[in-house]
Amino acid sequence: MVDYSPALMTDMYEYTMLDAALKDGTANRKCVFEVFTRHLPEGRRYGVVAGTGRILDALEHFHLDDEDLKFLSDRHVVSPETIKWLENFHFAGSIKGYREGEMFFPNSPILQVEGTFGECTLLETLILSVLNYDSAVASAASRMVSAAKDRPCMDMGGRRTNEWAAVAAARAAVVGGFKGTANLLAAQLYGLKAIGTAAHCFTLVHDSERDAFESQIEALGKNTTLLVDTYNIEEAVKTAVEVAGPELGGVRIDSGDLAAMAQRVRNQLDALGATNTTITVTNDLDEYALAALQTAPVDSYGVGTMLVTGSGAPTCAMVYKLTEREGADGTMVPVMKKSKDKATVPGRKLAFRSYEYSLAETEHVISGSEEKLAGYVADPAWKNLLVDFVNHGQIDGQWQGHDAIVAAHEYHATALGELPIAAQSLMKGEPVIPTETTVL
């Protein structure tokens, strides 16, 4: 694996701001930063949080070695005094937010980072790059899983994006409801189910399709899935059952009118006695194509390009904004931007979701000073959406690793089921529940 420092996965101005703030004394001011999005991608009803576990993984290694410090010094990015400050840097602040698999809406306080200005500002680019992409993939995956109607979806998008984005996408897809991935590094790093058998080139390299099928079955067993659309699908299915017998595990179709072909192949397999042989379809699927295949006899889907590109929304437009900072007298002061169309809500946040008849009704965001929030009493029936990830530099490991991904996958299914049914509509519309913001 490439050896790199997460502390350099950032924009240069994070370090130049740190340098200036150290010189004028504001670097040590306590601050609260917030990650939120002002709007969902056009027409989307909800978003799905993903990537927090990856941020925590990166945070464990968020420090600079001698080579990194030399790079910053040689490029005159920061002063010698700042280099000295960075030598022993480790994030000592606290982070809380929405757990992975949770739904988010406009102005949801997805992540809150509390610490000194110096340490919090260095995390901005890394946090946004992870949350924006991973949440976009998880949100697309969620829509696809809904459209698939409980038929498993698998990630096959590795060759359609950057090699490292492919690993992140595989993880985020599982958070959003997918069952596995073709990407072996993602499977290794996160303990995900790996899937895959053969491509068209495997058939083409053999002297006949029968030779290719016999070779694959000899290597992988009769339970394997054979790709049947290299030449003629009907002939391929016939040959596949002749070679493997009715115990053949599955066939995959990667071209043509998938619904029509799946129906013909299902009928042919049944007529040949292969009634338990499954059908997988691939070929540039998105949530709309999956919805169109709901009545077709398909058992599972492989999704590539549209998954790893967020199905047309490759980012969630999340931003990282300062909402509270320590004043010159030591008291915490809520702050806000007043820029046209980019105004922010001052103060740290609480977040809850209310329900009616077991369905989510409203997202409640409560903003104010630490003192005012401490005295706020929420409706006991409301669900508290914020969990603690980091407490004064100590990372809570329950949000990392394979078990955390499984928990997020399961939580997502539950949270999606709590939204009004309109959330699963593919028609464009407003967020499925409103967000009400109260400033104390």
TrEMBL record:
Keywords: Glycosyltransferase, Ligase, Phosphoprotein, Pyridine nucleotide biosynthesis, Transferase. Residues 8-132 form the Nicotinate phosphoribosyltransferase N-terminal domain. Residues 153-323 form the Nicotinate/nicotinamide phosphoribosyltransferase domain. The keyword Ligase applies. It comes from the Bacteria. Its EC number is 6.3.4.21. One of its GO terms (cellular component) is cytosol. Pathway: Cofactor biosynthesis; NAD(+) biosynthesis; nicotinate D-ribonucleotide from nicotinate: step 1/1. GO terms for molecular function: glycosyltransferase activity; nicotinate phosphoribosyltransferase activity. GO terms for biological process: NAD+ biosynthetic process via the salvage pathway. The keyword Hydrolase does not apply. CDD domains: NAPRTase_A. InterPro entries: Aldolase_TIM (IPR013785), N/Namide_PRibTrfase (IPR041525), NAPRTase_N (IPR040727), Nic_PRibTrfase-Fam (IPR007229), Nic_PRibTrfase_pncB (IPR006405), Nicotinate_pribotase-like_C (IPR036068). Catalyzes the first step in the biosynthesis of NAD from nicotinic acid, the ATP-dependent synthesis of beta-nicotinate D-ribonucleotide from nicotinate and 5-phospho-D-ribose 1-phosphate. Belongs to the NAPRTase family. This is Nicotinate phosphoribosyltransferase. It comes from Bifidobacterium breve DSM 20213 = JCM 1192.
